[in-house]
Amino acid sequence: MTAETVWTIKRLLDWTVEYFAKNDSIQPRLDAEILLAEALGCQRIELYTRFDEEVAAEPRGKFRDWVKRRAEGVPVAYLVGHREFFSLEFDVNEHVLIPRPETEHLVTTVLDLIAEHFAEQPVRIVDVGTGSGCIAISIAKHCDKAAVDAVDISDKALELARTNADKHGVSERVRFVLSDLLQEVERPESVNIVVSNPPYVGTKEANDLPIDVRDHEPHVALFANDQDGVVLSENLMRQMVELQCGQFLVLESSPMIIERLAEFAQANGFADVTIRKDFGGLQRWIVARRQS
């Protein structure tokens, strides 16, 4: 980017897409559009109606800095400070995992369970490993009778989740709990559904992760601290049985270990265990009923 060049929106996008592609970006066009729209304070769709508009020095400088950091591997969501999930915008930072589109299925599954089994009564949900609060807050936002405990081992994650709950007007129905899994959850026997997207990346997979994930997203939210990535999910199921917490479990995990976790659930106090597939046809979720 030289001072003599007239940097229109189209020219900036074209240059940046090519630059990102050379730096092995998986989605160079999308990354460039999100960053430029954020720098200009507009919606992505507006860029296409403003192609010939020259970009002023201040937003161009902000955009240039973001482009450099993105090429170094910093995720776009951390650069702009937010990510959409379940049609809601969530603040994100380096203390929380960036919400993924496939995790929206957990919210849909919980809402379906509420409609099927708890239609005539208040319902209590525990979201284990809440991070940004995207699962807990989306459930509360779409189900007025749901009270949700948003649990995390990170106080910095909970601080951000509180901000997101305030942002979406559900603070009165979401309680934030600093806890290792279910240990600090009050009255566990009154919980109806436990939902979780826990750390499930095994230590042996660390080097296979994309650089922007491995080097920038919080390891406490990624790695289960065992070779295969099953330990935290298995411990969560054990605690549910020991504490008689939750009638149903909705659990996200890796397609590589999901069948192993389903077998563990079936052998350790759960029934009606089913595995569900994501949009790409990969087995990714367990839905199970805890046996009384």
Structure commentary:
- With 292 residues, the chain is α/β, with parallel strands linked by helices.
- The protein contains twelve helices and nine strands.
- The protein has a seven-stranded mixed sheet, sandwiched between helices.
- Helix 1 packs across helix 2 and helix 2 runs antiparallel to helix 4 (57-71).
List the helices and strands and how they pair.
Blueprint: H1 9-22, H2 28-40, H3 44-47, H4 57-71, H5 76-80, E1 82-85, E2 88-91, H6 104-117, E3 123-128, H7 134-142, E4 146-152, H8 155-167, E5 174-178, E6 193-196, H9 211-214, H10 219-222, H11 231-243, E7 248-252, H12 258-267, E8 270-277, E9 283-290
Helix pairs in contact: 1-2, 2-4, 6-7
Overall pLDDT, averaged? 94
Proper CATH architecture of the largest domain = 3-Layer(aba) Sandwich
| Low-confidence blocks of residues | none
Taken from the alpha-carbon principal axes, the silhouette is elongated
Largest sheet: 7 strands, mixed
Topology as a string of helices (H) and strands (E): HHHHHEEHEHEHEEHHHEHEE
Rg over CA atoms: 21 Å
**Helical amount:** 40-55%
The name of the CATH superfamily of the largest domain reads: Vaccinia Virus protein VP39
